[in-house]
């Protein structure tokens, strides 16, 4: 809700100021994220060792590379926006250009907020993982969210850009680099998780037959519980996505005012041809 532009509460002449403010705020969020990751790296070296230190360093290094890639993308996007405004405003002022193209401006604001928010969430997730209080899956989800929000920023910046623009070419290159760095975060997180889990695997060699049987039954119960919970979470995810699409306007509103998915086209029923028609 915070990321959605509140058009009715913003005067059109203020949109230009908001674009500059949000881009500056996003840059500050990324700079702060880089500083926090460096602090976490120093803390990890002091408080961990062996496999855990190796895993933490690899994850934090990949997060740092991702933040640097995002920082370059935001800088390039800012340069492209200035180029767009200068080439398209004519005799109008910058503020008038943004006001005239208010929907495009709101898209930039929303995309910029999403990028800054994603960077902050990634750092918080990394902090919890390093402190062994978080989940590796959180880092993976945050990486996907950052890739999506940077793609949104590129799309918003690209709408009014000239195809021959050098800044547009640089922006697209930066976007590919961000996707690559986000994939590296996912890869380092998954490999680190596997290393930690292998290290923490229980040793069953000293257990008696009765103890092993008890552990086996308890594990079977946990498996059934997790399978049931997984199915419930999948249903919940589906409902969340439906609501997301409804808010985005992709669902058709019924006469009673409820947002429901548009009915899928019916497939034609293939009837078996009579014998006379067979070759």
TrEMBL record:
It comes from Eolophus roseicapilla. Residues 7-248 form the I/LWEQ domain. This is HIP1R protein. Residues 207-243 form a coiled coil. One of its GO terms (biological process) is endocytosis. PANTHER family: HUNTINGTIN INTERACTING PROTEIN 1 (PTHR10407), HUNTINGTIN-INTERACTING PROTEIN 1-RELATED PROTEIN (PTHR10407:SF10). It is found in: Cytoplasm. Keywords: Coiled coil, Cytoplasm. The gene is Hip1r. One of its GO terms (cellular component) is clathrin-coated vesicle. Residues 250-279 are annotated as: Disordered.
């Amino acid at each position: 809700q915070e990321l959605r532009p509140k058009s009715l509460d913003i005067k059109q002449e203020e949109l230009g100021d908001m674009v500059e403010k949000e881009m500056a705020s996003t840059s500050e969020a990324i700079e702060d994220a880089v500083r926090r990751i460096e602090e976490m790296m120093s803390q990890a070296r002091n408080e961990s060792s062996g496999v855990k230190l190796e895993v933490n360093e690899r994850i934090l290094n990949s997060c740092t590379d991702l933040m640097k890639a995002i920082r370059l993308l935001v800088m390039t996007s800012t340069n492209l926006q200035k180029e767009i405004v200068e080439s398209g405003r004519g005799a109008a002022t910058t503020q008038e250009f943004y006001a005239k193209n208010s929907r495009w401006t709101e898209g930039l604001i929303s995309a910029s907020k999403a990028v800054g928010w994603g960077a902050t969430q990634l750092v918080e997730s990394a902090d919890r993982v390093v402190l062994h209080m978080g989940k590796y899956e959180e880092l993976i989800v945050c990486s996907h969210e950052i890739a999506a929000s940077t793609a949104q920023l590129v799309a918003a910046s690209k709408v009014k850009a000239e195809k021959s623009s050098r800044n547009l070419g640089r922006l697209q290159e930066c976007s590919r680099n961000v996707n690559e760095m986000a994939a590296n975060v996912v890869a380092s997180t998954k490999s680190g998780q596997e290393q930690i889990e292998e290290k923490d695997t229980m040793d069953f060699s000293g257990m008696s037959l009765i103890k092993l049987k008890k552990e086996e039954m308890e594990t079977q119960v946990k498996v059934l519980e997790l399978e049931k919970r997984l199915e419930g979470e999948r249903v919940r995810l589906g409902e969340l996505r439906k609501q997301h699409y409804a808010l985005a306007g992709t669902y058709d509103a019924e006469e009673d005012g409820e947002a429901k998915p548009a009915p899928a086209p019916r497939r034609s029923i293939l009837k078996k041809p009579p014998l006379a028609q067979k070759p």
